[in-house]
Amino acid sequence: MSIPLMMLVWLFALGFGYTSGSWRGLQKRDAWIVCTLLLLSLALTVGIAINPQLPNPTEWVEQALSPLKPLLEPVN
Amino acid sequence: MNDHNTPLASRIEETQEMLERFLNDCSDASMYHFRIGEQLSGMFVFFSGLTHEDRMDELRQEMAGWRFHPDNTTFQQQFQYKITGLCSEEISTLEEIIDHITTGSVILLVDGIDRGYAFSLAEWRKRAIEDPAAESVIRGPREGFTESMIDNRAMLRRRLRSQKLKMKGIEVGRITQSHITIAYIEGLAAPELVREVEDRIAMIDIDGVLESGTIEEYIEDQPYSPFPQLLSTERPDAAAAGLLEGRVVILTDNTPMALIAPVSLFSLLQSPEDYYERFLIATAIRWLRYSFFFIALLVPSGYVALLTYHHEMIPSALLLSIAKSREAIPFPALMEAFMMETMFEALREAGVRLPKQVGAAVSIVGALVIGQAATSAGLVSSPMVMVVAITGIASFLLPHYSVGISIRLLRFPMMFLAGIFGLLGLLMGIIGITIHLCSLRSFGLPYLSPMAPMMVGEWTDVIMRPPAWLPRKRPRLTNSGGGLRNKSGMHVSKLHRKQE
Amino acid sequence: MLNGKISSVQLAVIMFQFVLSSTVLLMPSITTRLSEKDMWLTPLLGMGLGFLVVWLAYKLFKLSPEGSIVRLMESLFGTFLGKIVSILFILFQFHIVAISTRDYAEFIESNFFLETPIVVIIGTMLILCGWAVRRGFEVIARTGQIFVPIITLFTVLILILLIPELNPLHLLPFMERGAGPLLQGSLVVDGWFSQLLLAVYIFPLVRDQDNIRKWGFWCVIGITFVMLASNLAVFMLVGESAGYYTYPVLMAARYIAYAEFFEHLEAIVMMVWVLGEYIKISVYYYVITRGISDTFRLKKPEVIVMPVGLLLLFVCFWVGPDFQTVSSFIANTGTSYILIGFVLFPLLLCILAVIRGWFKGLGTSTK
């Protein structure tokens, strides 16, 4: 996904957040969670922008579960 | 505004002075002095134009002929004895005077008595009861509500001759003090519903209410939705039918449009005429209406989507002829559709305000000039004109104007989505509208009942027009003389507070 | 947002569509590769796991304090560790739904919109699902009630329109390769059925909880039936080459041509899949939001809907640099992964909870 598109996505998201108004009077704990989620998104954005082949969970799971692979290989 | 309580004075000159100060510059207010008998002087206070002046004159003549005898009671006491039974109410404050004379009563003030006497002699020029303009039917009563609250209430009372038909009055509007009547049938309408309606209306704090539309905006659940959450109707039989289903009817003074709450999308697609014609025909017409509901919403966007992105879905012969007509058109399908639809909407709006003499000419203008000429000029293609025409007819099929305009409005975003994203955009639009409809409630009733949430027992009224002799939840009776069963107020008493 | 009540019928309808959404399109190809001629039997075997998972979900719901599985994890593993376990489970769900969404988006993009950036397809779907989630699960349930009959109708329509082209002889010989390949294929179907476990997050919203088991049963039956029908139709149409097409049903729809009028109905398939995916992603989205909200005891769950959606969007891109990795993952390791997460793990929770219940019972009885 190209960088301009990602910035557009963030623009939309922040624009929606700004106009949404459900953020007034947010309690501390809720605000923490929201910020964590947004930070994670930011981290991923940056990560994907820098390296499109970022190590991803699918790979990790494939490696972790590789002993189980033969179970589901076609028998012929 | 008028919430002080200014007591009247005993001496008539004082009262008159107070009144004149209160009603200064109200040149339509009249104060008419006359003699009562030989010994007393009285004054009528009224607004000319609101009262039956002949009867007032008769009253004056009668009172002029009264004889008072000097004995151990005062003349005023004798007068008070004679007047009981003639007047409708005794009033004691200046504000009450205003209240009464603005609804057409005549107030009698007598020198030496610090009370006023109200006579209900209200009569003014009002519109005769006529065929409702926007909701006429082929079979059915041709009475429509008028601007007079008294007439409207009478029309309901005539149809529902029971003491269970309750009519609660509220006044809304700081200056207009408009009379609002909340009508419901005790025992059929859920008490929570009635209370909710009352509460919402009582919360209205506004300078004036001129039309029920204002009330509707104040009390509906989601004012931002394009869909109406109250049904507005001019027909007393539709209002009475709603009352019999357990709904609440809100009548507003000075407007013939009554509001019915709560309402679901399916009741907005029903016409009272459905219930007067034979059920097979009515069912067929109902199905026609449902299909045209979808057509009105989806045909322009579907056309744009198919033509721009999904040519392969159109059968080849049709595709060829469409392509031929569109060959010389300089605009892409989306722009063409948008232009034509906007033009059509403008025509329709213009048509509403046309004087009758010009009306016919304009329809010719619309059809020939715009449709034909634009096509030959190569600005739009004839399939596009067809599409716009079909859509227009489809939206006229919807019996209630408010739903029709919602669909007309929603067409445009759908066209945009279809023009940009093709069928996927169309689907996104449909999903979006469905989500909105599913989350909409009208006074607690989910907007899409009985489809979602599913209430299978009520499906017969949606899928078809069930015959009148088919009672719900009972074995079929073939007796054609059986009366219309009262439906229980089930679907509106599943009322629960908004979840948020 | 988290409190709308639904009926057990609505839940069954939603879960029915939820499982079927991607299944009907993807399954024939994968199961054919494994079980060849016997692939049509796989749903019948997978059905068993379906019943197991529904039972498991219900049991877990009953065992959970306040009906929330998050609380169960906390009571089993202690508050802090329980929250960690819950978060891991949520991350697992993130992964699964991201793969599913990516799959859907690639399908739409490669077959219909080659030029549109995928982010638009994923983004618009997430916006709609997020909106529905924000309005509450009862809205999702109601939209489901409207869409599911349409989806089912069109699926059945496509299958019926295919009847003239079908060749039952493709199904013979029966069980040519023995039970092994058949079991492999049914494992894949099990993977899809196991997603029914997510219902455990939604049980607290059901009004008539006594009917859950009955409607859960019918839900599984319904899913099996539709899977069976579509498997049969696809296989009878193209035989073993179904294994080579990624989307056999789409290709089957291309076969339909009646009177030169009903042609090129792939757009119908797309419509069916879009509506179905909307439901699937909405349910996952809701479950994730609910999971986070329960784990951290949020006061206003509505505010995290947008951040979760945004994160989900990026995770969809993170899970696979290109579609090939994702596709091969789904075909093989994905099944084991999903079975571990939605069957073994909940089974473990269940066993632990039951054992702890015994100990508690022992403790009180000896007093």
Brief summary of the model shown:
The complex is a heterotrimer of chains A (76), B (500) and C (367). Chain B is of the alpha+beta class and 500 residues long.
Number of strands of chain B: 12
How many distinct domains of chain A? 1
Average pLDDT confidence of chain B is: 83
Task: Name the assembly state.
Answer: heterotrimer
Annotation keywords:
heterotrimer; B: 500 residues; alpha+beta; 3 domains; 5-stranded antiparallel beta sheet; C: 367 residues; mainly alpha; Amino acid/polyamine transporter I; 75% helix; 0% strand
Structure, explained:
The complex is a heterotrimer of chains A (76), B (500) and C (367). Chain A is an all-alpha fold. Chain A has one domain (3-56). Chain A has three helices and no strands. The longest helix of chain A is centred in the middle third of the chain and has 23 residues, at 28-50. The radius of gyration of chain A is 19 Å and the shape is elongated. The N and C termini of chain A lie far apart (39 Å). Chain B folds into three domains: 12-119, no CATH class; 149-263, no CATH class; 275-446, no CATH class. In chain B, 46% of the residues lie in helices and 12% in strands. Chain B has helices at residues 12-22, 53-64, 75-83, 94-101, 149-159, 191-202, 212-219, 236-244, 265-268, 279-308, 316-326, 333-353, 356-376, 382-397, 401-439, 459-463, 490-493; strands spanning 29-36, 40-47, 89-91, 106-110, 116-119, 165-172, 178-185, 231-233, 248-252, 258-261, 441-442, 445-446. Chain B has a five-stranded antiparallel sheet, sandwiched between helices. A five-stranded antiparallel sheet of chain B has the order 6-7-9-10-8, with helices on both faces. Chain B starts with 11 loop residues before the first helix and ends in a 7-residue tail after the last helix. With 367 residues, chain C is an all-alpha fold. Chain C has 14 helices and no strands. Chains in contact: A-C, B-C. At the B-C interface, helix 15 of B face helix 5, helix 6 and helix 11 of C.
